[in-house]
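Section 5: illustrative case.
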C-alpha cells in the first residue's frame, strides 16, 4: 500500500530500460518503494537496470513485455498482478522515430504509432483493470508536450503522443471514484539516449527532474504534470496561435 504521502511500496515499470522510468524508480526506492517489476524486451540492458536497482536495496524482477504485441499483454502483465498488489504502474515506453525517414516509409511511421499509442492503449487498459480490481493504485503515463500541437518537424511522433494523452485523460475520468488515480506527465525536451544528437529545445530538462516532478505529483494526487512547469504557459500560448503564424515559427 502507499504511504501517507501517496508514495508506492510496489512499482511496475512498462518500459524497463527507460531513463526517465529508472530515474523515477531510483527516487522512489530512496523514499519507500521496495518491490519493482521492470517490464520490457529481454535484453542485457534490462538485466543491467534490474541489477542497479537491486543495488539500491529493492527486490527487482523482470518480465518479458513488448509494446508491439498487444495479444500478449494481458497474460504478461496479469502474472505481475497475480503476485500481489501493485501500488504504481509507470507507463514509460515509447519511440521517437525519424521524422524525415518515416514520412517516406509508412510502415516505419505505423510502427511509431503502434508503439506509442496502440501498445499504450492495450497495456494501459490491462493495468487499469487490474488496479481497479485491487481497489487502489496509480497509473502514471509519460506523455509529451509534443502532443499538445503537432509540429512540422515531428508530427508523426507528436500525433501519437496526442492520442496517448487524450486516452490517458479519458481513462482518468473513467476511473474517477474507483480508488485508481491516473496522472499524465508532459515533459518537454529531455536529455536522454533517445534525444542524443538532436538540437536541444528551450527549457530542456533531465530524467532526474522528471522523476522529481512525478514524485511531487503523486504526493499531490495531481492529474497533469508539466516538466518544467513553465511549459504549461508556453504550450497554452502555442496551442492558440493562428495556424498561419504557427507554421512560420522555427519549431
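Designed sequence:
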Amino acid at each position: 500500500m502507499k504511504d501517507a504521502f501517496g508514495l508506492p511500496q510496489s512499482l511496475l515499470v512498462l518500459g524497463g530500460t527507460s531513463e526517465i522510468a529508472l530515474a523515477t524508480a531510483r527516487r522512489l526506492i530512496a523514499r519507500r518503494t521496495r518491490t519493482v517489476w521492470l517490464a520490457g524486451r529481454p535484453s542485457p540492458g534490462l538485466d543491467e537496470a534490474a541489477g542497479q536497482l537491486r543495488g539500491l536495496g529493492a527486490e527487482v524482477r523482470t518480465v518479458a513485455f513488448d509494446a508491439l504485441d498487444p495479444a500478449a499483454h494481458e497474460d504478461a502483465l496479469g502474472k505481475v498482478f497475480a503476485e500481489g498488489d501493485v501500488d504504481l504502474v509507470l507507463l514509460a515506453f515509447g519511440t521517437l522515430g525519424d521524422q524525415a525517414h518515416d514520412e517516406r516509409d509508412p510502415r516505419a511511421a505505423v510502427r511509431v504509432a503502434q508503439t506509442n499509442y496502440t501498445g499504450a492503449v492495450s497495456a494501459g487498459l490491462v493495468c487499469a483493470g487490474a488496479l481497479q480490481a485491487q481497489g487502489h493504485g496509480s497509473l502514471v503515463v509519460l506523455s509529451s508536450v509534443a502532443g499538445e500541437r503537432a509540429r512540422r518537424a515531428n508530427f508523426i511522433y507528436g500525433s501519437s503522443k496526442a492520442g496517448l494523452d487524450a486516452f490517458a485523460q479519458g481513462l482518468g475520468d473513467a476511473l474517477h471514484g474507483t480508488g485508481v488515480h491516473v496522472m499524465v506527465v508532459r515533459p518537454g525536451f529531455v536529455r536522454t539516449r533517445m534525444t542524443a544528437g538532436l538540437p536541444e529545445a528551450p527549457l530542456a530538462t533531465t530524467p532526474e527532474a522528471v522523476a522529481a516532478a512525478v514524485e511531487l505529483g503523486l504526493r499531490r494526487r495531481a492529474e497533469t504534470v508539466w516538466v518544467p512547469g513553465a511549459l504549461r504557459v508556453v504550450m497554452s500560448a502555442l496551442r492558440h496561435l493562428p495556424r498561419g503564424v504557427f507554421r512560420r515559427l522555427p519549431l
